[in-house]
Specification:
- It is built from 18 helices and 26 strands.
- By secondary structure, it is of the alpha/beta class.
- It has an 8-stranded antiparallel sheet, with helices on one face. It has a 7-stranded antiparallel sheet with strand order 5-6-7-8-12-13-14, covered by helices on one side. It has a 6-stranded mixed sheet with strand order 16-21-20-19-17-18, with helices on both faces.
- Helix 9 (308-325) packs parallel to helix 13 (409-429).
- The longest helix is centred in the last third of the chain and has 22 residues, at 434-455.
- It is globular and about 75 Å long.
């Protein structure tokens, strides 16, 4: 949550620092959008402007009052954790004597204690935030130390919790200092200028050279250099890498919304996740596998930890891995995992799934698993992210930047990566012969084209959405791998349309949920292939039961499946002969498109649904 941007590089007063920061904030607004602010350092002081609302409203206010020229600048777009989204609670925040300005992502957990100490020393506060407390602490340390670098080293010793803190100080216009613990922060390396951001989208239009900053490290940025330090003051080195996508990947590219663009990017996201996975000999290979083959052969249980859509991708993984590898798989919500005393040991493989690689609940689960002796494999989309660095092995999804808050292409890429992991383990452990693994990989290679085929049904799905603008409740039913897709379909509708939506295993219908069915209730039914006749017949029976009670049924069914024709009010077709375990890659698409279009019909902001932020970096 929250987006941070920083820039240093101007050797004379100019508009560039503020222009760079505002542009970066707009790129990061998916991380939080209830308020925004900037602090421009002009040498003799700091010009601080902030406003509740979107970055666009901050821009308008700057145009009215005159945008400050500066040597360096920092900025922030907020998703509220401490204090309401008001002008006063927006970042940046000044210290007591306004000698330093701070922006912050995360939570300073001991802020109440620190605030009491500061109040006792005569400090006054204008906001309800923990960030203003951090600014006052840093201001005190600056008065003692005399420079921002030393002040930050002292201040971080006083903070508990998770934070990415970025500061600029009066009299040091050529310096920005930042520190991170459990919250994302990445540096952009330019020529005669340097950048920082919560992720690379903040500066990728200006440089593709990036540096990842490790846990409990701080960085000192100047126009001509970057210094990395551990919190104990010892020198450290950041990991430098090249960003493999350009600015166009983070733009809407002719679509009305980022979400629509990202829905249509799913064939490419799946393709990119599959590329380069086979050796010349036809064997499957993954990314950074720092777990030995001998260790993987001894694994007797897999636990998937994730939140939200990533957890539903984990449920799909469970079906595939158990079927191919005969290893029991559990799927845990990451925020529950470490609090229930889970049974993990050296023979347990924990698979952490996170688009950003910074999801705090998942990161804490990863650390708990490691403490218990488990090996950890991460499925993430962001290179150099915290979860990727702390895991024993990483499988990157290569979906490119996902800007819309509601996940679409990252979800499909996570499922694809889970298939690769399952097939890799099956190959390694001898559960599948090489020719069997090759056959499955061949089928995966066909999935981008099958996804394109479903995307071509967009007009039909948009027309359906227009019929349900006034619906206040929608149910989603599925069995086998259709069950987690029903859960994901309901989540999308809740996220985007703010109406009641529930996903159920279709077999549970008679055990309670059928009481919800009344005339006119829209129900999506994920129908399995007729090639699984027992499974198919059970779902058709459930379809008939809800139809008999007056529900309006939308079936997502395979081409040629005419058993649904007489029961469903509408049928959305997915490609014939898609393997059962791979059906989620095509059956999820109509649900994504339906939710997106229904939100548009209702006049809601598809990319920035209320109360939500893209990366949840606090517990």
């Amino acid at each position: 949550m929250c987006g941070i941007v920083g820039y240093v590089g101007a050797h004379e007063l100019s508009n560039r620092p503020l222009d760079i920061v505002l542009e970066g904030l707009e790129r990061l607004e998916y991380r939080g959008y209830d308020s925004a602010g900037v602090a421009a350092n002009f040498g003799g002081g700091i010009d601080l402007r902030k406003k509740a609302g979107r970055v666009e409203q901050l821009r308008e206010a700057l145009e009215v009052n005159g945008a400050p020229r500066a040597y360096s600048a920092i900025g922030h777009t907020r998703w509220a954790t401490h204090g309401q989204p008001t002008d006063s609670n927006a970042h940046p925040h000044f210290s007591q004597n306004k000698n330093v300005a701070v922006v912050h992502n995360g939570i300073v957990e001991n802020f109440a204690q620190l605030k009491e100490e500061l109040l006792d020393r005569g400090h006054t506060f204008s906001s309800q935030t923990d960030t203003e407390v951090a600014a006052h602490v840093l201001g005190e340390e600056l008065e003692k130390a005399g420079n921002l670098r030393a002040a930050m080293l002292s201040a971080v010793q006083r903070f508990e919790g998770s934070f990415a803190l970025v500061a600029t100080a009066v009299g040091e216009p050529d310096t920005i200092v930042a520190a991170r613990r459990n919250s994302p922060l990445v540096i952009g390396l330019g020529e005669g200028e340097n950048f920082l951001g919560s992720d690379v989208a903040a500066f990728v239009g200006h440089t593709k050279r990036a540096m990842a900053i490790g846990q409990d490290q701080m960085v000192v940025l100047h126009a001509d250099g970057v210094e990395v330090l551990n919190f104990d003051g010892t020198p450290a080195e950041g990991e430098v890498y090249e960003v493999d996508w350009d600015l166009n990947a983070a733009m809407t590219d002719g679509f009305d919304t980022y979400m629509e663009k990202e829905i249509h990017e799913q064939p490419h996201a799946v393709l990119e996740t599959l590329l380069g996975r086979r050796t010349k000999d036809g064997y499957l290979q993954l990314d950074d596998m720092n777990i030995t083959e001998a260790e993987l052969r001894t694994i007797d249980k897999i636990i998937v930890v994730a939140c939200g859509s990533a957890a539903y991708a984990g449920h799909v993984a469970k079906y595939a891995i158990e079927h191919w590898c005969r290893i029991p798989v559990e799927v845990e919500l990451a925020h529950e995992f470490r609090y229930r005393d889970p049974v993990v040991n050296s023979k347990t493989l924990v698979v952490a799934i996170s688009q950003s690689g910074e999801t705090m609940d998942t990161l804490m689960a990863v650390r708990h698993a490691a403490e218990q002796g488990s090996r950890v494999l991460a499925i993430v989309n962001v290179y150099g992210s915290t979860i990727a660095r702390e895991a024993d092995a990483v499988l990157y999804t290569h979906a490119g930047p996902e800007v819309a808050v509601a996940s679409t292409k990252a979800f499909s890429a996570q499922i694809t990566a889970a298939y690769l992991l399952g097939l890799y383990l099956a190959q390694l452990r001898g559960n599948k012969y090489p020719d069997e693994v090759a056959t499955y990989l061949d089928e995966l290679d066909k999935m981008p084209a099958r996804i394109e085929q479903v995307l071509a049904e967009e007009d039909q799905i948009k027309a359906l959405a227009a019929q349900f603008v006034d619906a206040d409740s929608v149910l989603f039913l599925g069995r086998h791998v259709g069950f987690p897709i029903a859960l994901e379909g309901a989540l999308k509708l809740k996220e985007l349309c703010y109406i009641h939506a529930e996903g159920f295993a279709a077999g549970e219908l008679k055990h309670g949920p059928i009481a919800l069915v009344e005339p006119g209730l829209p129900i999506f039914m994920i129908v399995p292939t007729p090639r699984r006749p027992l499974l198919h017949s059970k779902v058709i029976s459930a379809l008939a039961e809800v139809k008999a009670r007056g529900a309006r049924v939308i079936a997502v069914a395979e081409e040629g499946d005419h058993a649904v024709d007489s029961q469903a009010d509408a049928v959305i077709r997915v490609p014939l002969s898609t393997p059962t375990l791979m059906m989620p890659l095509v059956t999820v698409l109509p649900l994504q498109m339906f939710a997106c279009e229904l939100a548009k019909q209702k006049g809601y902001d598809v990319d920035k649904p209320r109360n939500l932020a893209k990366a949840v970096t606090v517990e």
